[in-house]
Amino acid sequence: MLPRGAIQEALSHAYVDAVCARAGSIYRRAWPDFGIDGRLSYVSLFEGRPWEPGIEVALQVKATTRASLRETEVRFELDADAYRELASDEGMPRVLVVCVMPDDEALWMEQTDEALSLRQCAWWTLLRGSPRSDNRRSIRVSLSTRNRFDVAAVQGPLRHLALQGRSA
What we know:
Order of helices and strands: HEEEEEEEHEEEEEHH
Strand order of the largest sheet: 1-2-5-8-11
Shape: globular
Largest sheet: 5 strands, mixed
Radius of gyration: 16 Å
Number of helices: 4
Structural class: alpha+beta
């Protein structure tokens, strides 16, 4: 059986994949993982057919049961190396997606004849340009609860980021 952390990771990617698919976009896991877990790619119509024009944003997906949920923010301890990579101005925009899951792993997923439910929620943030840190272990990041990783985010602000990154 997979270790707890590997199950969390797999479910968090399933969450991202499902949201992106419903938004009409494509999520591709990166392999090997060199600072990003995957790419969110946007599909357009070209001469009446779907095609990928290279509009994309990189995603770093984290799963946790230890985030601090507040009314307006989600606080999360991010590995210092990951923070530095996400804060870099180099390359395409890199978005941090944090999937918060219940402590009890029996609640992570529920399946019935009518539905498959993932018991978690995810939020996103862009750390590009954030202050440098000399921390060696972790850095506490704050994600706004307004930035839920959902269909509206994928079709709106994240697409806008991808378009900006294309022209950079």
